[in-house]
Specification:
With 460 residues, the chain is α/β, with parallel strands linked by helices. It folds into 3 domains: 3-101, 3-Layer(aba) Sandwich (Rossmann fold); 110-310, UDP-N-acetylmuramoyl-L-alanine:D-glutamate ligase (3-Layer(aba) Sandwich), CATH 3.40.1190; 319-458, Alpha-Beta Complex (Protein-Tyrosine Phosphatase, Chain A), CATH 3.90.190.20. It is built from 14 helices and 21 strands. It has helices at 17-28, 42-49, 86-92, 101-109, 123-135, 194-197, 200-212, 282-297, 301-310, 337-350, 365-379, 404-407, 424-431, 450-458; strands at residues 8-12, 32-36, 53-55, 73-77, 97-100, 113-118, 142-149, 154-157, 164-169, 181-186, 219-223, 237-241, 249-256, 259-265, 270-275, 319-323, 328-332, 356-360, 384-388, 415-419, 437-441. The protein has a 7-stranded mixed β-sheet, with helices on both faces. Helix 5 crosses helix 8 (282-297) and helix 5 packs across helix 9. The longest helix has 16 residues, at 282-297.
Length: 460
Amino acid sequence: MQLKDIKSVYFLGAGGIGMSALVRYFLNEGKFVAGYDRTPSELTSKLIEEGAVLHFEENLELVPDRCKDPDTTLIVYTPAIPADHKEWELFRNGTFTIKKRAEVLGIITKGKRGICAAGTHGKTTTSTMTAHLLHQSSIDCAAFLGGISKNYRSNLITTDKSDFVVIEADEYDRSFLHLEPYVATITSADPDHLDIYGNKENYLETFAQFTEKIRPDGYLIIHEGLEVAPRTKPGVQTFTYGRESGDFHAENIRIGGGTILFDYVSPWQRIPDIELGVPVSINIDNGIASMAMAEICGATADEMKEAMKSFAGADRRFDFHIKKENLVLLSDYAHHPDEVKACASSIRELYKDKRITVLFQPHLFSRTADFYKEFADSLSLFDKVILVEIYPAREKPIPGVTSKLIYDCLAPGVEKMMCRRDEVLCIVEKEKENIEVFVSLGAGDIENDVPQMKKILEQR
């Protein structure tokens, strides 16, 4: 089936952040788009407003007739869909063309110059920032993002003026091996998804395989110190980057008064006084990688400097909801120990003299089992830790694996408590008078409570 022959697209897992970008793409292409997701959300509500026909009940009668013709309907699914899901069984047992999200993304972007950000962490902010740099420049770009850009209120950017397309390259389930990058950045390679990869060596090997996908006329930009051994094709130019060293790096870093400034240094130029629109220290690294990709694509110094200052960030990435002298509330998507550590360090740098409380919802039983000691070490950088029960996502419980594994390994002296998911808002209500900086952390559904947390804290 060719994409031009498709009349309808049906999504199993339509509300996922990566899937929803494809929902928007096909709606923009004038296709009939429908699908299923397990739970409604703010994102699915917006997709419905934009024209998608979505439902949240596992019910074959809710599949639109226009999505039952195998000759004109493409089925896009997420691996999180259970094998016994009735709708999934219907399509599998038919003669439908069925593709993973990553396969469809690879097909759509084939023949374009893909600007891909990969890594255990940092890839969402880096890809979103790169898309902003290019889209605001004379170069322009399209983008498929793994987060909602605050500048564009979407995870999809379209253009008819450029063949550059920015893509968040997701390593889960080896998805990024469906891409053929023109420019690829690897931000980090700390082992994750060990339920898929089994061990660190397999994880790193897949990143090496990703570098083999880069076009012969392309570029690889890799963070200094990573254990990934690139295997690029002849002709690919490889560069390193880092905060204070590498082919691309920062100098004259100044942090204070709520701002971060630095001088950007590349093999070709120096741009002084870059100001971060989202002033947290981890964005120095993300900013260097983004500017490196944008510079390679042809963005000018003035264009990049202006866009870096106006970059508003991505939802759930250092997302400030209250930012006052005596009260701060922010949420972040961190769900790997190194992400939690980076988040804690950046917040501590901003609020050296404040008491910082974190509410953490672990994501996946398998990740908790693999990294509970590392999570405890990272969370111990906060003053107080409130641990919520594990968000299962696609997994079934693993005997003996609960948030208490992390709780029991927290450093002595750290205030700590555990709570059920349905107790979260009550805990915030009880703690509100003592809160100075409050961080809601995790990739599960804890974000759904942030608006109510904001109301509670603002009423104290």
